[in-house]
Write a structure and sequence with these properties.
Bound molecules: 1,4-dihydronicotinamide adenine dinucleotide, (2S)-3,4-dihydro-2H-pyrrole-2-carboxylic acid
Largest sheet: 8 strands, mixed
Distance between the termini: 40 Å
CATH class of the largest domain: Alpha Beta
CATH architecture of the largest domain: 3-Layer(aba) Sandwich
Subcellular location: Cytoplasm
Keywords: Amino-acid biosynthesis, Cytoplasm, NADP, Oxidoreductase, Proline biosynthesis
GO molecular function: pyrroline-5-carboxylate reductase activity
Radius of gyration: 21 Å
CATH superfamily of the largest domain: NAD(P)-binding Rossmann-like Domain
CATH topology of the largest domain: Rossmann fold
Order of helices and strands: EHEHEHEHHEHEEHEHHHHHH
Number of helices: 13
Number of domains: 2
Structural class: alpha/beta
Helix content: 55-70%
Strand content: 5-15%
Shape: elongated
Number of strands: 8
GO biological process, one term: L-proline biosynthetic process
Function: Catalyzes the reduction of 1-pyrroline-5-carboxylate (PCA) to L-proline.
């Protein structure tokens, strides 16, 4: 895939999320030498340099050559990372994309200056294998062609959806940003229970993971709802029914709902704790 200009993508922060996006981009054929990864420690950048990326420890120099600047540091350090970039981004006006949970566009506008084309993105780590799911929201400075370019970049990592309001990104965080962890937690619990029922760890793990894969692929490719797919597994007076009844007796739906509300609340708290100065 070739990106229409702007074409230098600079990542500030090359941790888990940046690496997941970078990997998705490389898999889609985006040239490694058009991507810059910037991190405080060159040691951490070594594998990315070996893949052919341009690497740097200097955020300001890297931002100064960005066409698309992706801010991928923890929310807790975002302000201290952004403030020194003010002059570089005001001089070049790249498209800026934050992947940080919670932090709102108005905070970035305070830290980086006004009139910048900014996108907030909530990606997830399955971007690593091109199976990511991202929510995107753009401010009014982002032009249609720039929106298309950002969408093309994130679509290289999986599903990329625009949402209608910035608030919705906190809901995206609760559903898909943090969502992989919920499924991993479920897998951990199923492997443990499979072992308790007498399977070897190896078999419990293989069966659990392939079941998750099969269920996810079936649900995404099917034209019927997850509820109907569940019904088709659940024979009246059969085995699945007992498991589902047990989940329901233990308020499964409420447990999931409460967890996602807690996630959503935390995104809002982060915005207040870290974005108000
Ligand atoms: N991990 C995930 O599943 C997701 C993470 N995010 C967001 O992505 C952002 C990054 O999270 P992770 O990648 O998980 O964290 P991480 O800790 O793996 O990566 C952050 C990277 O930033 C680097 N860094 C620290 N200070 C820096 C500085 N001054 N300049 C440049 N780089 C610096 C760190 O060395 C580290 O490699 C966060 O804001 C998070 O909210 C969003 C969606 C999903
Ligand atoms: O846990 C977090 O804060 C980040 C944001 C979404 C997924 N991981």
């Amino acid at each position: 895939m070739t990106l229409s200009p702007p074409s230098r993508i600079v990542f500030i922060g090359a941790g888990n999320m940046a690496r997941a996006i970078i990997s998705g981009l490389l898999k889609q054929g985006i040239p490694a030498n058009s991507i810059t990864a910037c991190e405080p420690s060159l040691e951490k950048l070594q594998d990315l340099a070996e893949l052919g990326l341009d690497v740097s420890t200097n955020n300001v120099e890297s931002a100064a050559k960005a066409d698309l600047l992706i801010l991928a540091v923890k929310p807790q350090v975002m302000k201290s990372v952004c403030t020194p970039l003010h002059a570089a981004v005001q001089a070049r006006h790249p498209i800026i994309m934050s992947v940080a949970a919670g932090l709102r566009l108005e905070a970035f506008e305070r830290w980086l200056g006004p009139d910048l084309a900014m996108v907030r993105c909530m990606p997830n780590t399955p971007s690593l294998i091109g199976k990511g799911a991202s929510g995107l929201f753009a401010n009014s400075q982002v032009q249609p062609a720039q929106k298309q370019m950002v969408e093309q970049v994130m679509a290289a990592t999986g599903l990329a959806l625009w949402v209608n309001s910035e608030d919705e990104l906190d809901a995206v965080t609760a559903v898909s940003g943090s969502g992989p962890a919920y499924y991993f937690l479920m897998m951990e619990a199923m492997i443990k229970a499979g072992k308790a029922l007498g399977l070897s760890e190896e078999n419990a793990k293989a069966l659990t993971l392939h079941t998750a894969l099969g269920a996810a692929e079936m649900a995404t490719s099917s034209d019927v709802s997850p509820a109907e797919l569940r019904r088709r597994v659940t024979s009246p007076k059969g085995t699945t029914e007992q498991a589902v009844l047990s989940f329901q007796d233990h308020q499964f739906e409420q447990i999931v709902g409460q967890a996602m509300h807690a996630c959503h609340r935390r995104a809002k708290e982060l915005a207040v704790e870290l974005g108000n100065n």
